Input
Amino acid sequence: MRKLIDLRMGLFLAALFLVTVLAPVASTLQAGSTFAMPSYLIPLLGKYLCYALLAVALDLCWGYAGILSLGHGAFFALGGYAMGMHLMREIGARGVYANPELPDFMVFLGWDELPWFWYGFSSFPFAAVMALLVPGLLAFVFGWFAFRSRVSGVYLSIITQALTFALLLAFFRNEMGFGGNNGLTDFRDVLGFSLSAPSTRIALFVLTAISLAACLLIAKAITVSKAGKVLVAVRDAESRTRFMGYRVESYSVFVFTVSAMMAGLAGALYVPQVGIINPGEFAPANSIEIVVWVALGGRGTLVGAAIGALVVVALKSWLTATFPDLWLFALGGLFILVTLALPNGLLGLLDRFKPRRAKPAQEATA
Amino acid sequence: MLLRLLTLCLALMLPSLAHAQTLEELVARLPDGNFNDRAEVVNQIAATGDPRALAVLEALLEGDLEERNADGRIVIVTGSRSNQVATDVLTGEDLGAVARRSTTSIRVNNGLRRSIRSAMGVMTLRDPDPARRLAAAEAALRAPDAEQVEALAAAMAAEQVASIRQAQALAHAAAVLASDAETEAKLAAVAVVGEAPALVVQATLNAYRNVEDPALAEAVADTIADAERRQAMWGQAQNLWFGLSLGSVLLLAAIGLAITFGVMGVINLAHGELVMLGAYTTYVVQQWLRTNAPEYFGWSLAIAVPLAFLFVGAVGVAIERGIVRHLYGRPLETLLATWGVSLILQQAVRTAFGPTNREVGTPDWMSGAFQLGEMTVTWPRVAIVIFSLTVFFGLLLAMRYSAFGLQMRAVTQNRPMAANLGIRTGRVDALTFGLGAGIAGLAGVALSQIDNVSPNLGQGYIIDSFLVVVFGGVGNLWGTLAAAMGLGIANKFLEPWAGAVLGKILILIFIILFIQKRPRGLFPQRGRAAEG
Amino acid sequence: MTAQLYLDGVTRSFDGFKAINGLSLSVDKGELRAVIGPNGAGKTTMMDIITGKTRPDGGEVLWNMATDLTRMDEASVANLGIGRKFQKPTVFETHSVEDNIRLALKAPRGVFASLFYRSSVAEEAKVTALLDRIRLTHLRTEQAANLSHGQKQWLEIGMLLAQEPQLLLVDEPAAGMTDAETMETAELLKSIAGERTVIVVEHDMDFVRALDCRVTVLHQGSVLAEGSLDHVSAREDVIEVYLGR
Output
């Protein structure tokens, strides 16, 4: 257990727990009360936590296995689309065209029947499984091909970027059957609960917080396991690991797939809270932005990645609202600052001011 | 006066002399007689060759030509019912408002209308203005009329300009086909039409596919099939050309990267923005010329090329010295930092020039197009193909033969050794990066001619250019050339079959698969070192 | 005694340059063999071919006269029991010394086996014993990045031993070591031989002499001479190759 929850993890989880309990309470207080929080902030916080989860997913494969994916936005979006498809089906006959079977955009396009790949999405469990499975499967296949051919480093980054770009173009097409340009939106409810009801929003927020905590712990468990050490070993000296008999590509595919599934989960939680998913989520720039979250927080720290995401996204919300022109300057500056001055991110900065502790609880024998 | 009366009498008595009559007299006779008489007069009007005749016939055709009851003057009446205005048909003199029923319209029926149109066609066929003659011949081709066979033949005989005569011959052949001429003549006409562009062949001959005459039907079918074959062939040529032209654009965008990424191993994600800066340099040059020296606008691109190279090259040197220098040997960090640079450049341009597209003009000497066989080739495309190949070979020569090229290769191949030989490696790094950036600037000048100049210009090229460099084999300029052209052509051949977007997706998937199969690209760097 | 490693007529060229040219070599089980040769003689390429990193253009590479090594990748070859030490010491810099050894310990190498791996008391004892043997016990929890060059060499040898391979391929183990360390390394390798097969590629003649074993001289990708060190160093052609032409 000590391996799993070290000081940072403990502090972060405690803080997350506090926010998860206090924010919903504050949002239900009477307006005017000292601690009252406007209720629209709940889905916003939920959205932030989704991004934090996405950052943790990327950190797992970049920070520990050295796989810099510039296409994690694609896995996030695919998870989001899977959930969005379920939410579309839940609208049922309440759409503009009142078609019980077809979502509005299909009626608008003059389609007569549901495409086969929409079958099953009326069931929530099916959609939830697909939100994990589709990104996972894509990552598995893509990773299997890439790592088996020993594509690594910047080459891998470039082709992941091409992957998300190809998906962006594909999802823009109406013929794909995912709502084209407009994506999926106008959701009503999930599992029978209205998406606009404060209680549903709180439930989704809490669910996101729990997922973030769970994924942090899973990711931590992987990294402290022997498999996690092998991953770091691959990052440090790939051929040494091979000559030791470890099949490097299996480990890379494994961590890439797990990471993609976490990204998919983040996307699936994101869509009901934001209320829309469109091809813009596949934009290559989005995927690169995730990297700066992780880099700012500190790669290879998991908790740092989550914190980095929260800091950058909050900064983005604030800047785009107050000084929209400054946002890209700030983001660009952040990229340069982090790479030149903060190679270990914010958490690394903390370490610098702290007297070096004895080696962090180096795996006592179990 | 007496003389005039006399001639009028003569004209009335001797219709056979009508062709010698003046336009005034013929116009005066228009209200007389029945429709057949009127048709005869129309033909005579056309035959005068008088430049004013066309206006008369046009007005007659429109039904605007009327006779003033008071003096028999022939006028054009226009305007709304309550406010009619008359002008003299021949002199154009404004005769002011006319009361209703003070004029009698000269009536036309369908038969007469046909005669008028035919007569007008014949007139424009002989128009002094060559452009109008050509237009008339083309119009006659579009609507073949058996009545015009002779007129077209006559026009052909008189025509001096070869291209117009060719158009007239085509129209003549079409008219022959529409007439009830002998099979012999029609077969000859089919042969004439067969020489025309495929689209014209199809449009002209399709109606005769099912004629009763078996010989003629066969000739028509053969000619159409022939034209379709020709068209398919030229279609491939057209695809090839579009592909080369797209390939040149890719090449231009990628050459700079081939230097920074291929030679130095630096991932510069701001490359697209450097291209964008080149395009904005062109815009600024043109703005300055427009306000200060509009007469030199034709030189704007020639001025922009060196300026863009120097300016963007300087930006590149600044990026290298300020940022990239500290990150050598850390490719992933370089990638992230240059991405940051790209965001800053984008926003800087957006702040300075606004987010919307800027208008960059094309000098007159570069606009327009010419016809090559069955395909249309636009001059800007030709210019870009030539420009990108020039840049490519220029760079190749510079790398191979200039002192700087030698130093550059020395530094990239063995840095410590180069340093020991007294080469200032830091300076070479900066200049190499600057060279890559400068070439990006040149690409920007060219792309400003075919793409929207906006702060987002660069983003559209960055992924493509990286794929070109990686596909071609990092560090190999020839590979970059082959990859750019190959991908450009593949893209254009896929497009008609799969659609533009799907074609692009297929290419992306192909490259992703290709890189996994051959991670070192089409033309990998040779040697044991490459085994890594 | 059968050959544990058997190479026959192996060739491999890079762009026309024949790095290995009809190389034939046979090493018995438990033997200690030194391979020497000038730069470019093909020593490293030979190791690459045996360990599955490079595919030969032709020829046979057999393990225990039965398994064809040319069709296997690095991990499969390693799992057969062939361990390799690089010329430049290569350890996992961000792992602690003991974790470096732990990762090398003989154990199932699959992803899920590693994911749910729990080390046993016996394995920890092995780690302790190995650390003792390579004299790094006092640096047990230190990051490998902080070790000296010689210590890294030792650590890598320790990792190799932890793999419990049947054949050890050791590339210039003495590089960067003090004379005393060099001699210790020679003793260590000699003590390993017998139980395991050891092939050492080396430049340092003193070291080779200390190994006191059969020597194979490579030149231009094939075997020039083979025998005791005294025997081969007496040969004219070997002297010529080593002292220049």
User: Anything to note?
Assistant: Chain B has three domains: 20-111, 126-212, 234-361+375-525. Residues 525 and 531 of chain B are 10 Å apart (CA to CA).
